[in-house]
Amino acid sequence: MLLTGLKKALVTSAFLFCALFVPAILAATEIAEVRHVIDGDTLVLANGKHVRLIGINAPEIGHSCHSGPATRGAVTSPHSGKDCTPTPDQPLARDARAQLTNLVRRQQVTLSFEHERHDRYGRLLAHVLLADGQSVEEILLRQGLAWMVAIPPNIEQFGRLQVAEQEARAGQAGIWNEPAYKPVPAERLTPKNTGFYLIEGTVQAWRLRHQVIYFDLAPGVTLVVPNKDWKKYFPGKPADLAGRRVVARGWLTEYKGGLRMRVPHPAMLTLLN
């Protein structure tokens, strides 16, 4: 009698667990139709929602001051007014957009989500899979039409994306054969050099302040790593980077007349010596 009751309790518990857990799994993916493509890493669904692909960054489409937002950073901030400066397309930007358009426009795709579903612009953050299961991000990376980026907490696929990028680098495909995208020496940077860059330099000094680690590559050029990210993802100690030659990738922002680049994951940092 006790055994029978125990079996019933276990079956009931298992049923309740599945009822709670299965919807959570199903909620991690979504089928959607793509209306059009904005650039090599951003698209718009048939329902009007914008999607930013996780794990890659493609060259930027330029903008004029009269055409409104052209790329991801301007979804809610149209380029207009007397202070606007038109920008040209970056090399291979239109190639990346054309390839993404060929892959997904008017197609049904699977959106695969990770821990964080929206960025600060309100766009969905997702991996995009084609009907045959191929990863759109991996295709673009293998063709040298995007860089791999690892932005916690959405880093579940960064290893696969790194492998795809390495194939493009080995074959000197796309951006890896474009002189404009070679790592820029840190000492040559100015406060006007904002946006996505690969930069190269030697770690001159480091310091921990207010739970943030700062690595100086040149006067006014600093890599920034939140201490919590260092403890969670980086091997060794911050002092281990002192004197090391590195290539960092990420977005440079102006700060008090200098430049800072946030490096939240070791996949965004390459040691050269």
Structural notes for this entry:
- The protein is α+β, with helices and mostly antiparallel strands.
- It is built from five helices and 15 strands.
- The protein has helices at 2-26, 93-104, 136-142, 158-170, 227-233; strands at residues 29-39, 42-45, 50-53, 56-57, 108-112, 124-129, 147-148, 184-185, 195-202, 205-209, 212-218, 221-226, 245-255, 258-262, 269-271.
- Strands 8, 9, 10, 11, 12, 13, 14 and 15 form an eight-stranded mixed beta sheet that branches.
- Strand 2 and strand 3 (50-53) form a beta hairpin.
- Helix 3 (136-142) runs parallel beside helix 4 (158-170).
- It is globular.
State the main characteristics:
single chain; 273 residues; alpha+beta; 8-stranded mixed beta sheet; 5-stranded mixed barrel; 15 strands; globular
- What radius of gyration results from the CA coordinates? 22 Å
Q: Any idea what the shape is?
A: globular
Q: What is the structural class? A: alpha+beta
Question: The biggest beta sheet, please?
Answer: 8 strands, mixed
Number of helices: 5
| Termini separation | 70 Å
Mean pLDDT, all residues:
87
In terms of DSSP E residues, the strand content is 25-35%
